[in-house]
Write a structure and sequence with these properties.
Elements: E1 36-43, E2 48-54, E3 59-64, H1 65-68, H2 78-94, E4 99-105, H3 111-122, E5 125-131
Parallel strand pairs: 1-4, 4-5
Antiparallel strand pairs: 1-2, 2-3
Amino acid sequence: MAKLETVDASIPPPKKPAGKRKKTFKKKREKRVVHHGIVHIQASFNNTIITIADTEGNVVAWSSAGAIGFRGSRKGTPFAATQAAVRAGHGAKSVGMRTVEVRVKGPGGGRESAIRALQASVGLSVKSINDVTPIPHNGCRPPKRRRV
């Protein structure tokens, strides 16, 4: 017959030696060169978000008025949108981007100023500008009118 072994609960299991942890290494990202990209400008009344992606949709650089440091009602201004576009544009320029397509969404004040900043301040060549603002075919009821 098989002999049963009893485990004494009062004896703790042997510990691993302290300080001998495996070091984990992060893989270094490959520095990729992207020549053509798509700029998504999401301009609401409260903020402007600029995302620059390559043609497959992988984000290369992004910025927003809030991320730069504008707070409150200043985030929705055209000047804040210009600053956000300049920062995102320099990030895209560092990857080697030269030409972009622009897709604008929303009714905010930073629409035109962000495009102008990408052309003038950053020096990206804009090939096309598309308005991709979603327009309802009589969907949800809109919020009530403002009375000022």
